Amino acid sequence: MVFGYLTFRKARKSKLSQRNAAITSLSSELPSTLDFDTTHHEIVAAPVSEILRRVHEARTWTSRQIITAFAKQALIAHAETNCLTEVFASQAISHAAELDLEMGRRDEPVGPLHGVPVSLKDTFNVFGVDSTLGYSGWVGRPAGKDSVIVSLLKKAGAVPYVKTNIPQTLLSFESWNPVG
């Protein structure tokens, strides 16, 4: 019993440390709140249809701008609510930049969701990222491949950037668990 508790504590501490390091790293890459300009505010307030119009048709926003704005907003929300379990926005920003380059080469969007930021619940596998469902025993076991829905989203041009908290085993209405 004691060993199980100690194992849980060690896994939880490791996961929180990993998440906090990702947040710190991302925070240093993003503009400060004072630099969070009008465009960023417009982006995070825009409905998906407007994001798609601005990326696909008007081409006034880039995928990189969109993911950067949403990543900053996610960090602000996390500071208030502890909602993030996995933060891979740095990789998402790089992927968004690649989408922008590909759109420049093709002269058309990569897919119907090109540039749309997607936060996922901790139930969906993202390659290289843990999906713990709140179980400490699943900490440190990154997914070997994307789940089907994540693969489909990426193929459509969407950009997953964070995973959000869920109740342990999805058996509660509260989005809290001992790991996250």
TrEMBL record:
<feature type="domain" description="Amidase">
    <location>
        <begin position="66"/>
        <end position="178"/>
    </location>
</feature>
<dbReference type="GO" id="GO:0016787">
    <property type="term" value="F:hydrolase activity"/>
</dbReference>
<dbReference type="Pfam" id="PF01425">
    <property type="entry name" value="Amidase"/>
</dbReference>
<protein>
    <submittedName>
        <fullName>Amidase signature domain-containing protein</fullName>
    </submittedName>
</protein>
<comment type="similarity">
    <text>Belongs to the amidase family.</text>
</comment>
<dbReference type="InterPro" id="IPR023631">
    <property type="entry name" value="Amidase_dom"/>
</dbReference>
<keyword id="KW-0378">Hydrolase</keyword>
<dbReference type="InterPro" id="IPR036928">
    <property type="entry name" value="AS_sf"/>
</dbReference>
